[in-house]
Amino acid sequence: MASRGTLFRHPNNNHVEHYHQEEHQINEKVPNHNKIITSLTAGAMAGAVAKTTIAPLDRTKIKFQISNIPFSFRAAISFLVKTVKNEGFFTLWRGNSATMARIIPYAAIQYAAHEQFKNFLKEDVTKKHLTPGRRFLAGSLAGVTSVAFTYPLDMVRARMAVTAKEMYHNLPEVFMKIYRAEGFRTLYRGFTPTILGSIPYSGTSFFTYETLKKTHAEYAKGREPTPVERLVFGAIAGILGQSASYPLDIVRRRMQTAGVTGHSHDYTSIISTARNVIKDEGFKRGMYKGLSMNWIKGPIAVGVSFTTFDITQRWLRKKTIFHIDEES
């Protein structure tokens, strides 16, 4: 039986499963269709806040990923300073409109899909947590789902981030110019490495965050994590997720921007792209270029994203408009 709503003793064994009391009580009041709505809304907010926070670092990372210039913190700072000096401070957020157009539906779908996949993969309805393997699978499936629905927007965002503003003035113009000059299929260049990269990235990120929350519930006896604790959990998830998928991130960026960097014939597949990068820059310097910057921006972005999602979702689900009609 449950004790004060914070733990559950399974009938077939003596294992006591702790869970976060308030979160569970709130979720029990919300029917599944409203869970989808609140997850979509909170996910959209989480993606927008997180990406806007680290947009200048993201643009800097992409710049180095798609060139053969050796990465260093000094070179990254130099790029940021030169960009502000030559183009203005707000150009550090160049391409952020395209990022928002992509990340809002991407994050909304990812978080909503993750919750649905967790419910689908649950073997025992009496348990509050999935097994470790299913925890990873739920995250991976959520990542693949969101990428499949939003990939062309990621392609366009990468193009805007590495080109002068005179070349592409707005999002529709990028689509039209790519379509006319390079063909429709170019909008999906880099799709395969992105899908493959989303499996370890989303799987590791969600697995780590959910596992840390589960561990917290056990040690805190069901007390809700504070925002700072959620940020720390998300930061750890971000470091591990980014590290697990980074070489494929390099490959997809090179393929996405090949049309504007003069490598259209070099970066035609995952293997050819990886081979050329390693040949020109070496394995470590090429395939892990900018990873140290990702260890800064990744934890910030993922930590802010998970924290914003959890807080926003809980706030929405406390609203009686999303609760089950007690008269029905």
Description:
The longest helix has 31 residues, at 132-162. With 328 residues, the chain is mainly α. The chain has 13 helices and 2 strands; from the N terminus they run ββααααααααααααα. α2 packs antiparallel against α5 (96-121), α2 (32-53) runs antiparallel to α13 and α9 packs across α11 (270-281). A hairpin with a 6-residue loop joins β1 (7-9) and β2 (16-18). It has helices spanning 21-28, 32-53, 55-65, 73-87, 96-121, 132-162, 171-182, 191-219, 227-256, 258-261, 270-281, 283-287, 291-317; strands at 7-9, 16-18. The model is unreliable at 1-5 (pLDDT under 50). It has a two-stranded antiparallel ribbon with strand order 1-2.
Task: Describe the secondary structure blueprint for this structure.
Layout: E1 7-9, E2 16-18, H1 21-28, H2 32-53, H3 55-65, H4 73-87, H5 96-121, H6 132-162, H7 171-182, H8 191-219, H9 227-256, H10 258-261, H11 270-281, H12 283-287, H13 291-317
Antiparallel strand pairs: 1-2
Helix pairs in contact: 2-5, 2-13, 5-6, 6-8, 8-9, 9-11, 9-13
